């Protein structure tokens, strides 16, 4: 008898992991800095690369929508972040976006 184990799919990145990795972006996202620092852009690129499934992207979208206002994120700054970092994201970073994907 051969036993074949099918690996359980795990989200590549959790909400908490994504929020923690975006700490270098805080000065930009809250309006204290005019441009994001390289560590911030690296975090954005890494999160984008880890969001490989529709479910993960939806969950991260909901996570960012929920966390943004409490963290004093300026919506326009959040919207600008991917472009300024040169990262093409599938879902725009916008508090009004539908995360249903």
From TrEMBL:
Any Pfam family matching the protein: Tryp_alpha_amyl
Residue ranges of the Bifunctional inhibitor/plant lipid transfer protein/seed storage helical domain?
15-99
Q: Does the keyword Transport apply?
A: yes
Q: Which domain of life is it from?
A: Eukaryota
Q: Where are the coiled-coil regions?
A: none
Keywords (alphabetical) are:
Lipid-binding, Transport
Q: Gene3D superfamilies of this UniProt entry?
A: Plant lipid-transfer and hydrophobic proteins
Q: What does this protein do?
A: Plant non-specific lipid-transfer proteins transfer phospholipids as well as galactolipids across membranes. May play a role in wax or cutin deposition in the cell walls of expanding epidermal cells and certain secretory tissues.
Q: Which family does it belong to?
A: Belongs to the plant LTP family.
Put simply, this protein is called: Non-specific lipid-transfer protein
Organism name: Gossypium arboreum
């Amino acid at each position: 008898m051969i036993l074949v184990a099918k690996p359980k799919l795990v989200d590549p990145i959790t909400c908490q992991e994504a929020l923690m990795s975006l700490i270098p972006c805080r000065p930009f996202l809250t309006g204290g800095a005019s441009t994001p620092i390289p560590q911030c852009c690296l975090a954005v690129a890494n999160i984008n690369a880890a969001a490989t499934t529709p479910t993960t992207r939806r969950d991260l979208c909901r996570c960012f929508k929920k966390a943004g206002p409490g963290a004093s994120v300026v919506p326009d700054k959040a919207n600008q972040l991917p472009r300024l970092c040169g990262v093409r994201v599938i879902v725009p970073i916008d508090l009004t976006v539908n995360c249903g994907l």
